[in-house]
Amino acid sequence: MMALLKNKIGLATISAFALFFLSCHFQTAQAEDPNTIEPSSNFVVTDHANVLSDQTKQAILKQEQTFKKTKEQPQVAVLTINNTDGQSIRDFTNSLTMRSVWHAGKKGQDNGVIIVFAKNNGQNNVRVVTGTGVESVLPDGKIYQLLQANQQELKSSDPNAIDRGIRNLFLQVEKTLPTTQTSGKQSASTTSSVIALGLITILLLIIFLVWSKMRRLNGSKGSYYGTDNSNNINRFNQTSNRPQRGHHSGLDWFLGGFLLSNLFSGTRRHYYDDHYDGFGGESNFDGSDFGGGSDSGGGGNFGGGGSDF
C-alpha cells in the first residue's frame, strides 16, 4: 500500500515537472523578440496575437489611406503580440522603436504613433508610443486617459471585447492627430485652371502683336497709294530691292499658329499623363495594402513619449 502511494506521489511529481517545463517551453516559443520582429506588408496592422477582427483591420487600413491624402501624412500602427518574454511592455516597445523599420510617420515630421498590445498570459498589457512630432497634441497624460477609458475592454478575457477596445483606442488616437486635407482632384483642377489662364494670356498677346503689325502694314500701304505718281515711281524704285512686308506678315502668322499648336498639344499631353498617374495611385487600398502590399513606415523618429498599463 505504501509502495503504491509512493509511486502515485512520484508519478504526480514527475507529471507536475513535465507540465511546468512544457509550459515554459510554450511561453518561450510564443514570445516575440523586439529586435527581430518585422511589421506586416502593409505596416499599420501586424496582428501576431490574432485578436483583431476584419472590421478593425479595415478601419486601420482605411484611415491609413486617408492619412496619405493629407499634407502631414501621419501614421498610426497597431502591433499585437503574444508575450514579451518577461520584459515590461515599456522596455519591449522602446527596443522596438529603436529599429528604423518600425519608424512610423512622415520623415522630418516624426508624427507616427504605435499601439502595442501584449497578451502576456492574460495581463493584456497595452502601450501607446508617440513620435516627437505629436507629443504636443498627444502627451503622456492624454494617452493615459485614453487607456483608462478603454481599460475594461482591453483588460477583458473576451476576445471580442479586446478587439473592440483596440479599435476604439485606435480611433480616439487618430482623431487627435492634426491633418490638412489636400484633395488630388482639387489640385489637378487648380493646376489645369492656371495652365488654361496662362495659355489664354499668351494667345491674347500673340493676337495683339499680329494685329499691331498688320495695322502698321495697312497704314503704310495707304500712305503709299495716296501720293502722286512721280513719288510712287521713286518709292517703288527705292523699295523694289527690299523684301516685301506681306511675306513677313505671312511668316508671322505661320510661326504664331505653330507656336499655339505646340503649346496646346504639349499641355494636353502632360495634363492627361498627370491625371493617369494620379488615378493609378488610388488602387492601393482596394488591392495591395490589405492583401500584401509593400507599404512601410515613413521614417519618423520616436522620442520615448508614451503611456501604458
What brief labels describe this structure?
elongated, 309 residues, Diaminopimelate Epimerase, Chain A, domain 1, alpha/beta, single chain, 2 domains
Structural account:
This protein is 58% helix and 10% strand. With 309 residues, the chain is of the alpha/beta class. Helix 2 packs parallel to helix 6 (159-176) and helix 7 (184-225) runs antiparallel to helix 9 (245-280). Residues 25-29 and 266-296 have low confidence and may be disordered.
Briefly say what this structure is.
With 309 residues, the chain is α/β, with parallel strands linked by helices.
Which sheet architecture does the biggest sheet show? 5 strands, mixed
Helical residues, percent:
55-70%
Mean pLDDT: 75
Q: How large is the share of residues in beta strands?
A: 5-15%
N-end to C-end Cα span: 53 Å
Query: Total number of β-strand segments?
Result: 5
Q: What is the overall number of helices?
A: 10
Coarse shape: elongated
Q: Uncertain segments of ≥5 residues (pLDDT<50)?
A: 25-29, 266-296
Q: Determine and state the CATH class of the largest domain.
A: Alpha Beta
Structural class: alpha/beta
Instruction: Tally the structural domains.
Output: 2
State the CATH topology of the largest domain: Diaminopimelate Epimerase, Chain A, domain 1
C-alpha Rg, in Å? 37 Å
CATH architecture call of the largest domain: Roll
List SSEs in N-to-C order: HEHEHEEHHHHHHHE
Biggest sheet strand line-up: 1-2-3-4-5
Pfam families: TPM_phosphatase
Transmembrane segments: 193-211
Signal peptide: 1-31
Protein name: TPM domain-containing protein
